[in-house]
Write a structure and sequence with these properties.
There is one protein chain. The chain is α+β, with helices and mostly antiparallel strands and 206 residues long. It has two domains: 90 residues, no CATH class; 106 residues, no CATH class. The chain contains six helices and eight strands. It has a five-stranded antiparallel β-sheet with strand order 6-4-5-8-7. The chain has a three-stranded antiparallel β-sheet with strand order 1-2-3. It is globular and about 50 Å long. It starts with 7 loop residues before the first strand and ends with a helix.
């Protein structure tokens, strides 16, 4: 049985479908961390499986933001600092516009971009939204950013190679894969989990 993701909750709506939320603890909410429905573009997902995978990824991103806020001040998460200087990172467009902040220096974003059906592109970029617009213009069809995972360049490159390897059987050309969105998101989630496990094991051996 897989370990639950911190602060990820699911609520069944009147239509019977699950809605996912990142719901920090009461002490965290008292200190400014807010409940957030995830993923932000939840209405764009056509299958429950894809929505669930995207919610897992988004909850992981928000937990990383929380942990970095705690680590910077040497605090435990139940007494995490107010998220004033970190909340912008939860809005990807705002985060990518920031300049001169070492917290974001050298960051790359691994993205999954594609349509509701058809090919999905898995790549890295400093500005995924700009990349999406360029791809949308060249392809002539609506494209969405289904998932983003930010990190240092080295981590993003390792993650990209891992996801590409997992999706090798679906590769159409370059970074485009002829697979369902759920398959692409599952590969990304598994790659993130494995890399974090490897990093934790490395830290324990130091």
């Amino acid at each position: 049985m897989s370990k639950p993701v911190r602060y990820l909750t699911a609520r069944r709506g009147k239509d019977g479908a699950f809605r996912y939320y990142w719901q920090p603890s009461t002490p965290l909410r008292a200190n400014g961390w807010k409940v957030e429905r995830i993923p932000p573009n939840w209405q764009d997902y056509s299958t429950p499986e894809a929505l669930h995978s995207a919610a897992l990824l988004r909850a992981g991103e928000l937990n990383d933001i929380l942990d970095r806020a705690c680590n910077r001040l040497g605090q435990q998460s139940p007494k995490a600092p107010a998220p004033k200087q970190y909340r912008q990172e939860t809005n990807t467009t705002q985060a990518m516009k920031r300049r001169g902040d070492p917290e974001f220096g050298g960051r790359q974003y691994l993205y999954v971009i594609g349509g509701q059906r058809g090919l999905q592109k898995v790549g890295i970029s400093r500005c995924p939204e700009r990349r999406r617009r360029a791809l949308e213009t060249s392809s002539g069809r609506p494209l969405h950013i289904w998932a983003l995972y930010g990190g240092r360049m080295t981590f993003a490159n390792l993650l990209e190679r891992d996801v590409h390897a997992r999706l090798a059987a679906f590769r159409r050309q370059g970074e485009w894969f002829d697979c369902s969105l759920d398959v692409a998101l599952s590969a990304l989630g598994a790659a993130i989990l494995d890399l974090h496990k490897a990093r934790c094991a490395s830290d324990e051996n130091k």
